[in-house]
Every structure is written in structure tokens, then in C-alpha cells.
Specification:
Blueprint lengths: L6 E5 L4 H12 L3 E6 L2 H11 L5 E5 L5 H15 L4 E4 L14 H31 L6 E5 L12 H21 L5 E7 L8 H5 L1 H9 L9 H12 L10 E4 L17
């Protein structure tokens, strides 16, 4: 699944799943732009990846149209093309539904859903121009979640945003199909990121997590990166409008599984 000489933008790539995707892409030969709002971690991530290939950091708040436009322009100035976009940037704000602030709801939707729309539209415009000039179609990968389907009562904005990402994926896949541009999504389950570290260290919380995970383990960011690498490659050339759930079997589950003591 070589991505040799492809140019990829990965948003929210300063850490976690986004960084794992960026690292896999660089390892597979791509030139990668890490887009994030955390300048310190973003620069550090880019320096890390530069030891194995080509990478650079660009500050970008995906909820801001001007930031997105500048990100695309800087990427084209640096690498001359954009073949792959991974809309990974996302935030979580937990709150009881009755206490949820409108501003918090708006903030999550602006980053997780509007940001994916703005980035997709800006990059797709470039891709279409390239195709009209005889270039090859690119692809877009959205980071969805099992919570695009499953709900959490104190994570209303996050669940709503990921449900929106699911429909954004399908709608844009149909809209861009005439140009040959593929749009797919990945729906991670429980992945060992910074956000999940507290759960993993709490035995009771870990037992609850395992009880809904048939494979009885937490996934690794690199495993999500592997799915992204597949979707970005020509091996997935006939796949569009789909969400691949990498969740250890959680989505098909209609019960809880027995968790051995000590796990």
C-alpha cells in the first residue's frame, strides 16, 4: 500500500490517532502536513516525522474558513499538490444534557463537523481542478466513531457531530464520485490514546470497557492508521461512501461479553 510521493494533510495530527496516521503515511512514502492548533506539539510531531521522511507543521483551526484556506495554500506552496485529506481534528466536551451550554454544543459541532466540511470542500476544489488538468483523483478520509451510531448520554455534541460526519461522508462521496474522488470514513472504538489512559488505569472502568469489546483488548492508534493507509491506497480504489468500524467487534454486539478476572 505504497503512498510514494503522495501529499497528505492530516488535521489534528499533533498527537493521538492523527499522529499515528501521519506517521504511517510518512513511513509509506507520503509527504505529510500536520495541521493542528497546538503549535508546540505540532512542531514536535513534525520534527519527529522528519527523521523518517518529509513532514511539516501548519497551524490551522479547522472551524475557521480563513485558516483552512491558508492551510491549503501553504501545502500547495510547499509540496505543489494534495492527494489525501484526513479529517481527524476533533474535540470532546462532556456535560449532562440538561446542563449543556449552547456555546459548548456549537464549539464541538464547529470543530468536528463544520471543520470536516470546510477542509473537504477546500481540498476537493483543488482536486477537481487537478483532475480537469489531467491529474489523478485524490481521496478524503473522515474520522468518525462508533458513536456515530451508538450514543453516550453525557456526550451529546460529540455523538451528534459524529453522526453528522457519517452523513457528510456519504453525501460528499456521491457529490465527488463523478470526478473519481473517493470519500470514506473510519469509526474507531476504544483506542489507546491520551483520553483513554485514565480509563485503562481504573480496573472497574476497564472491566466495563472490555465487557463491550469482543476482542477483549483496547485498540492501538497504529491499527487505525493501518485502515487509513488502506483507504488512501489504490487497494481501496473501488470503495467510497463507506465507514469502516475498527472497534474490536463492538458494533455487532447485542450483549456483554464475559471478562476473565485479571484482564
Amino acid at each position: 500500500m505504497s503512498l510514494e510521493n503522495k501529499v497528505a494533510i492530516v488535521t489534528g495530527a499533533a498527537q493521538g490517532i492523527g499522529f499515528a496516521v501521519a506517521k504511517r503515511f510518512v513511513s509509506d512514502g507520503a509527504k505529510v502536513v500536520i495541521a493542528d492548533i497546538d503549535d508546540a506539539k505540532g512542531e514536535e510531531a513534525a520534527e519527529d516525522l522528519q527523521t523518517i521522511g518529509e513532514a511539516m507543521y501548519i497551524h490551522c483551526n479547522v472551524a475557521e474558513r480563513l485558516d483552512v484556506r491558508n492551510m491549503v495554500a501553504e501545502t500547495l506552496n510547499a509540496y505543489g499538490d494534495i492527494d489525501i485529506l484526513v479529517n481527524n481534528a476533533g474535540i470532546v466536551i462532556g456535560s449532562d444534557f440538561l446542563e449543556l451550554e449552547e456555546a459548548d454544543f456549537d464549539r464541538v459541532l464547529s470543530t468536528n463537523l463544520k471543520g470536516a466540511f470546510l477542509c473537504s470542500q477546500a481540498v476537493a476544489r483543488h482536486m477537481v481542478e487537478k483532475i480537469e488538468g489531467g491529474g489523478e483523483p485524490g481521496c478524503i478520509i473522515n474520522m468518525s466513531s462508533v458513536n456515530s451510531v451508538l450514543a453516550i448520554p453525557n456526550q451529546i455534541p460529540y455523538c451528534v457531530s459524529k453522526g453528522g460526519v457519517s452523513q457528510l461522508t456519504k453525501s460528499t462521496a456521491l457529490a465527488l464520485a463523478p470526478h473519481g474522488i473517493r470519500v470514506n470514513a473510519i469509526g474507531p472504538g476504544s483506542i489507546m490514546t491520551e483520553m483513554l489512559s485514565a480509563v485503562n488505569s481504573d480496573r472497574e472502568a476497564r472491566q466495563r470497557l472490555m465487557s463491550r469489546t469482543p476482542l477483549l483488548r483496547i485498540g492501538e492508534p497504529a491499527e487505525i492508521a493501518g485502515v487509513a493507509a488502506f483507504l488512501a491506497s489504490q487497494d481501496a480504489g473501488y470503495i467510497t461512501g463507506q465507514t469502516i468500524f475498527a472497534d474490536g467487534g463492538r458494533m455487532p454486539l447485542n450483549y456483554t461479553v464475559a471478562v476473565p478476572d485479571g484482564d
